[in-house]
Design a protein that fits this description.
Shape: globular
Largest sheet: 9 strands, mixed
Radius of gyration: 22 Å
Strand content: 25-35%
Strand order of the largest sheet: 9-8-10-11-7-12-13-14-15
Structural class: alpha/beta
Number of strands: 15
Helix content: 25-40%
Order of helices and strands: HHEEEHEEEHHEHEEHEHEHHEEEEHH
Distance between the termini: 46 Å
């Protein structure tokens, strides 16, 4: 279900968006990028193209930005010249105005499908395979703590949303985001969103504060839209103290880079911890890294699923369970490759057997149940 602002008619709302209304309503468009009044770009089919859309003047563009930002109770002005917000349909918005935006206001809108993508959609797009999703389903059911890693625009939030769909309906889920984007279908979901400072520079509520508060809400799963600050330490501590099955995303280009990124984020909490202590926290907390990438042809793919296995000295050890092997590009420029298992048996599956859970049908052939083999 899309995030909607109560009491707002979508058609009337979209009409307030001026020249960009048609591309906001066009389901083929996944992103809208406004660079001043004369340059409006959109992403369609993984490609960014310049449209012929123009605003009458800077005031018209500013009015559209103010409308979007104010509709979710936020502000943007010379004192606070940038803002994160969302449209009434849940699309993510970032706006920057003068004096930070030198050549005129900048507006970036990351659109989401009216119907959230499901596993079948991502398999059809070639983003992942049935076996890969079977493993992720097993990991979620086994209450693995999962980090979705990738660069900007690789589809981390979309993938996190799909993973969240594997959480059992009876679990109490607390979601924490800068701007509410996740679209979970379970009923027992508590959604929280950060709040920026008010006009007096007060009243800010950060992700870190919401993570700390979430621990008092009897959560069975905590889903954080993105870790990018000191909240990483609180998230790791939560994962280490009984809140298994939690998930978040980080910006990183590989699982090893994601580990380094987590270390940096933990240090941002302002607590002096030795590197080895941080890595022990990570090893005790994180089970799986899912790495996403945007390939040269514009496609978004899962390129690896990696399991954290322990520590050797001060080095965290990991093993790849699935990996994407590129085989070059076809005549149409599309990247050809296979996402396949490496042949290594994931340790996390042992937790499923301990919990008495059956393996998902999609991976029974890949990772036979030792209980069944013992009965033969």
């Amino acid at each position: 279900m899309a995030v909607r602002i109560p009491g707002i008619d979508l058609q009337e709302y979209y009409a307030q968006l001026g020249p960009i209304q048609p591309v906001i309503e066009d389901d083929r468009v996944t992103e809208v990028m406004v660079n001043g009044v004369d340059h409006v770009y959109v992403e369609m089919g993984g490609k960014v193209v310049l449209t012929g859309i123009k605003f009458q003047d800077e005031d018209q563009l500013l009015n559209v930005i103010q409308f979007i930002v104010r509709s979710v109770g936020r502000r943007i002005d010379e004192r606070t010249p940038l803002a994160d917000a969302r449209l009434a349909d849940g699309s993510r918005v970032n706006a920057v105005i003068r004096p930070l935006a030198i050549d005129g206001p900048l507006l970036t809108i990351r659109k989401f499908a009216k119907d959230p993508f499901q596993v079948e959609d991502l398999i059809r797009f070639g983003s992942c395979t049935e076996g890969g999703f079977g493993f992720m389903k097993a990991a979620v059911l086994a209450r693995a703590n999962i980090i979705v890693s990738g660069g900007t625009g690789t589809g981390k939030t979309t993938f996190l949303n799909v993973l969240s769909g594997f959480i059992p309906a009876e679990d109490r889920i607390v979601t924490i985001e800068d701007a509410a984007e996740l679209q979970l279908h379970q009923e027992h979901v508590c959604r929280m969103e950060t709040r920026p400072k008010d006009i007096n520079g007060e009243g800010e509520v950060t992700i870190q504060r919401l993570v700390i508060n979430a621990l008092r809400m009897r959560p069975e799963r905590i889903v954080v839209g993105e870790c990018r600050g000191g909240e990483a330490l609180d998230m790791l501590q939560a994962m280490n103290t009984g809140h298994d099955g939690s998930m978040t995303t980080v910006h990183a280009n590989s699982p090893r880079d994601a580990l380094a990124r987590l270390e940096t984020l933990v240090l941002m909490a302002g607590i002096e911890l030795p590197v080895k202590a941080i890595r022990q926290q990570v090893v005790g907390a994180i089970n799986i890294f899912v790495q996403l990438a945007r390939l040269r042809d514009g496609s978004r793919r899962v390129v690896s699923m990696t399991e954290v296995t322990g520590m050797e000295g001060e080095t965290i050890t990991m093993q790849e369970i699935f990996v994407f092997e590129s085989q070059g590009a076809g005549p149409d420029g599309k990247i050809i490759g296979q996402f396949k298992p490496t042949g290594i048996r994931p340790k996390i599956l042992d937790r499923m057997f301990t919990m008495g859970l059956p393996l998902p049908a999609e991976i029974q052939a890949l990772f036979p149940d030792p209980r069944m083999m013992a009965q033969r």
